[in-house]
Every structure is written in C-alpha cells, then in structure tokens.
Amino acid sequence: MNTKQRVILLLSLTIFAEKTIADQYKCPFSALNQTIDWKRFSKLKTTWYEVLTIPMLLEPMDCWDWSDFVPLEGGEFTTKIHQNLKSGNGGEYIIDFHMKPNADGSYTLVEKEGSRSKIANTTRSALSHIQDKESIEDMVAVTEGFVLLKWYFMTDYENYLIVGACGPGFHYQSFAKFRKQRPNFVDVVNTWNRFSALGESPNVALRRKCIKRKHN
Question: What is the number of H-type helices and E-type strands within the chain?
C-alpha cells in the first residue's frame, strides 16, 4: 500500500464515522455552511477547547484546541491548533493553519511549501511518549491528510465553535469547541440544538479526557 492509499485508509478509519453509525453524515455535507465574520469572531480572543465529537470517533485522539484567529483578505484566516495529549501530561504542540474559502461555503487548508512536513514533525513530537512507532506514523499520515479535507464552521459568536471536516467518499465528522474547558449543560445542549435546527439528530460524544485534563 502506497503512502496516498495509506492516508486515505487512515482518514476513513480514524477521523470519520462508519456508515453503520449514521448514513446522514456521508460527505459532501453542506449543512454546515454558515458564513462567518472572521473579523468579528477574532475579537473574542479566546482559546476554543475541544469538548464534543459528532458522531463518536472510532479511535481516541488527542485534544485539539483552536486559538489566535486572524482574519485576512478574501475571507481567508489563520489560526493556531494546539495539539494536547489527552492525558494532559505531554505538553502542548502548535500547528499553524491557513484556511481559504471555497464557492460551496467550505474551507480548505492552504498548503504552503514545507507545511506537510511541519505538521508531521509536530505530530511526531506530540506523540513521542508512545512506544509503538507504527502508531505514531499512522497518526502522522492522518494529520498530513488534513490538506485533503473540506472544513466547515458554525458559531454563536459567544460560547461555541463547531469545526467540521469532510472528504469525498468519507463521512462527516465535527468537533464542538467551547470557550470553557468545562462548559455548562446549557451550552452543550445549544450545540445539539444547532444541528437539530438543520434537520439533523447528531450522535454526540463527550470528550471526557479532554475536559478533565490539566490545561497548560
């Protein structure tokens, strides 16, 4: 199996849900099509902590927090992705993202020279505590595959940011992030209601280890 085939296989197994979980999540998934005012959003100046996945992940992943949104011309923006070990004991590793909008309302990651290798090296550092080198390279392949995805966003400009990822032939996966690492019940329910308003009944999974971890 070549590298490209390996990346596609790992994306299907690790990031996206199986068909048997929820057929309504098959990509492309355009319901997450909110036009976000990134200038307004960037003024919140906060870290968005990972709390929920929709639907449940097949495999556990580290906690991914987003911060430092900077609006650019043409609807583009940059942000920092904080890759935290879900145990909370391995420190924090930062990946810089640069997103550009597509005509269908989604976003794609701007691939710059050396960006894949930088993401790969950051992921290797974040997972250096794992003894299984093959597992590390599997996750590296997944994060390198971020450039293959279409990304979607929803927010209420106050409490939550929903980040969705989708790839052709795969299933939609979203991650609900909150201004509080331990949001209250009402905030969590509001994200479910956001999907419900779109005619969806999402299978929401609480990222318990992300909520309980000690944030650096």
Answer: 6, 9
Beta bridge partner(s), residue 197: none
Number of domains the chain is built from: 1
Write b or e for each residue in 132-170: b if 16 or more Cβ atoms lie within 10 A of its Cβ, otherwise e: eeeebbbbbbbbbbbebbbbbbbbeeebbbbbbbbbeeb
| Tokens read off for 134 | 């093959």
* C-beta separation of 28 from 16 below 8 A: no
Domain residue limits at 168 = 3-212
Phi, psi values for residue 60, rounded to 5°: -65, 140
Provide the CATH number for the domain around residue 26.
2.40.128.20
* Tens digits of pLDDT across the chain (216 residues): 444 444 333 333 333 333 333 445 556 555 667 889 999 999 999 999 999 887 666 555 678 899 999 999 999 999 998 877 654 445 567 888 899 998 888 898 887 766 667 777 777 776 666 666 776 676 666 666 677 788 889 999 999 999 988 876 566 778 899 999 888 888 888 888 888 887 777 677 888 878 877 654
Residues 6+ apart with CB under 8 A from 183: 51, 159, 160
Is-contact 101 74, C-beta < 8 A? Answer: yes
